[in-house]
Structure formats: C-alpha cells, structure tokens
Amino acid sequence: MQNIWDELSDHQSNVQARKISELFENDKRAAEYSVKTDGMLFDFSKTNIDSTALNTLLSLAKGANLVAKRDAMFQGDAINETEGRAVLHTALRNVNGTPVLVDGQDVMPDVLATLARMESFAEDVRSGAFMGQGGAITDVVNIGIGGSDLGPAMAVRALTAFADGPRVHFVSNVDGADVADTLAGLDPTTTMVIVASKTFTTIETMTNATTARDWMAKSVANTGAQFAALSTSAEKTSEFGISAERVFGFEDWVGGRYSLWGPIGLSIMLSVGAEDFRSFLAGGEAMDKHFTQANLAENMPVLLALVGIWHHQVCGYPTRAVLPYEQRLGRLAAYFQQLEMESNGKGVAMSGDDLPMPAGPIVWGEPGTNGQHAFYQLIHQGRQVIPCEFMIGAKGQEAELAHHHDLLVANCLAQSEALMLGRDLETARGLMAQKGLSGDELERQARHRVFTGNRPSTTLVYPSLTPFVLGQIIALYEHRVFVEGVIMGINSFDQWGVELGKELATALEPMVQGKESADHKDGSTQSLLKFISRS
Ligand code: F6P
Prior knowledge:
Largest sheet: 6 strands, mixed
Low-confidence stretches: none
Bound molecules: 6-O-phosphono-beta-D-fructofuranose
Radius of gyration: 25 Å
Mean pLDDT: 97
C-alpha cells in the first residue's frame, strides 16, 4: 500500500499547480467524473482528480480489500473488532427480509417484528387511538443524545414537508435550559416522551428523562403510560418504569450514529407516518444495493470516499465543508460531524499501530445560501483550501415558490463555478478601472478583488428532498465513511475517544457540588472549580 500512497503523493505534487478548469478541455469530463444512481447525480469533475489520480485511488481501495470488507459488513461478520460486534445497520433497511446471519442466527425476523410494532404504535398515536391523560397526543419529546438525537432530529427537520403527525421536539443537552425550554408551553397531559438511549445509561439522557418524568408527574397520574423507550436494554427500561409494550429494542450490532433506521427513528415515523418512513428505508436500501453491486469505478459511495481521501490524506486539506442548498437540511452538518468524526477520528489502525497520517478530516457546514453571507469569504479568499461538498434538489418542495428555488440553484452552481474559476488580477484591474480608479489606488483595490480560484468542490444533485432521497443521502455518506475507514485500516465503528471525558465528568461532579476535595486535581482545574464555587 505504501507505494500506492507514494504514487498518489508524487502525482499530486506534479499536478497541484494545474488549473482544474483546464481539465475541461476534455469535453467529456463532466460525464466521466460523475456518477448517477436512482435519480441522483454526484459530480466530482470540479476537482483536480484526473485519470491517473482516479486509477491510483481505485488501486488503494482494491489494495485495502474493500470488496471483501464490504461483504463482511453486510454478511454480519464481527468487523467492529475492538467491541467484538457485527455492524448491521443495513439490516434495519433490508425490508424484504433477506436473511442476515449473526452467529448463525437470522436477525431479520426480529428486525421486521420490531418495525411492525413501531408502525402499529406510531399509527395509534397519530390516529388518536393511543391517548394521553388529556386526550390525543399533540407533542412528542425525544430525549436522547449523539446518535439517539442527531439522526432523528436531522431527519424530522429534513422531512418537514411530509410531517402530518404530532409536533416532535428534541432534548439532548444536560444543560437544564434544553429540557426547560422544550417543556415550557407543552401540555403534559397530551405529551408523549420517548427516551432514546441505546445503553440507557447515558447521564445526559437519564437526567433529562427523570426531569421530564417529574414534570409530567405534576399533572399526569400514570406517567409511565406516556413514556416510550428505544434501547438495547430491556432490563434498564423496565427499571425506569416503562412498560414492555412501549419499549422498542434493538441489538448491539446497530451503532448509535447509524441507528436512525430502526427504533431510534420512531420520532421520524411519528412525524411523517409509517409509509414515508418505509420510503426512507427504501432509499437507504437502494443505496446499499448500488454500493454492493456497482463496480468500484462507478460506485457513488466509493467515489465520494476517494474524493475525500484525495483531498484530506493526499492534498492535506484538513477540513471539508458540507453545504446543502436545502434549508431543511439545517442539521445535516451536525449529523455528519458525528457520523464522520466519531467514526473516523482515530489515531491508531485496527492493529493498534499508530496511523502514518490523519484518518478523518474536520467536517463542518451550514445550508446555503446562508453560509454565503457568513464564512464563504474564507472559502473563496482565505489561504486554506476547503473542499466543498454542495448538495441541491432539482426541485423544491414549495411548488408555488419555484422562483425561490431557481435562485437557490443559481446560487449553488455559482459558488462551485466561482471556486473553480476565481478572478485574476487583470480582470480585477479592469473592474477597478471601470469604477474610475487609477494608479496605486487601482492596484491596491484590485488586489482585494482577486480570487485565486482552482478550489475543488463536488455537487450532489437529487430530484427533491423526499423520504426516499433522504435515505439515499444518509446511506451514501455512511458508506463513504466506511470506505474511507477501510482504506485507512481503522475501526470506524467504535468511539473510545469519548470515554475519558465521561469518566472524568462523573468523578468531578461531587467536587463541583463541594462534597469532595479537588486537591489532587491539576492547578487549572482547581482554580476553575474555586472560581465557579465562589461566583
Ligand atoms: O458519546 C458517545 C455515544 O456513545 C454515541 O456514540 C452515542 O450515539 C451516544 O453516546 C448516545 O448513547 P446512548 O444511545 O447509549 O444514550
């Protein structure tokens, strides 16, 4: 593998000064450096990747045994080696029930039975057959954090155009402001609380769940009847007082950040209904089929991953921006931050050896056009190169506001064009001359108006943001993360890096409360504790 990395690095050094725009002298470039599947187009032609780079990147994927590793994941091998678990979120969207074996046992009957129970419960809540003490459920509060919050919160917002159920709210932060602000104004007698926690031990979630139960107990005689739980731990949900008929379980082979396809997605189903939820699953499944069946060179998740590897590991760009031109994807970047950075933000290989290069980039972003009026300045003229991943629907959801959508599309395409073409000094001088400037002032002002250009971006175009398309997008990025992880030789499915802070927080709580001495702590922590206790 090292020789392939060396080839990539040598090639990158040779071509880095080349203009991306010149690659379009090949008038088939847009077609050759893009891929389509099920109505979706991924265009990576506005990058500096040429046929040598692409073929070498593909050799990297082959050298990492990507196909065998992909198949091992789908067939239920314990590829999460540091936790000894299979990785089978794909089984949750395998709605036709093709057997999937874990330790020789087909998991599909249980998956489908739980999906059917969720559907029946969701329809009862939505129709009013299931009622709170004060009548039909008007509001649902999902209490969870990380994967038990970000996925459903992102998806419920994304599918606003399809929402016809109770209002859905999300509480995640242990900051009491989150639960207080969310519950304020809700009627406890018509509110359903969903406690979403794979482990049912997460301190933030259990603290918020207890606070919500206390809030409800002031007005509702049997609070447990208005609570549901989504968890792998039947024992702990029962200890919390939630009756088994409203507990929707799943297995440890569903990672938290991959869990919105199953019970953790109950709030999505309550919002949009069972049929649209199935359509979301079908979108994910369609991307699974493409990922498992298409040749690597025509495989959207593989190509998206290879573009990521080219920009981060080969070119050394430390971050990438996710820029959906879709207001309802306002939480997508936050969701991708967990998906990508909790999965691939690793320093050691599966073997335990140190990685020779960073494994995962910093992921960030915001919907356009808002981002244009905030951080795009740096993207266009800052010294760092930030590869941008644009996303846009061919059509919006608001048929009567098509003129808004035309503007949105124009802005999205304009940004990738501007990033690639830039504006040279001569052109900037011409513009200043037209404004009547001359001499030193013309020169000075012109320099501020230069765009170096040659900045890479990709564009994902989908028909419109339906449940099916959302499923495709999420599965596309899940598999992208997997492919990048395989190429880097890491375990994308554990998250040991979040543990140390949790342990220290548990130990610090009694010191914050003044119940224990903090004398053994470092000087900074002691001084912070003192300042806080005296404030
Ligand atoms: O903090 C990390 C993490 O374990 C995530 O991976 C997970 O999504 C989140 O906490 C919540 O965990 P749980 O669903 O068990 O409450």
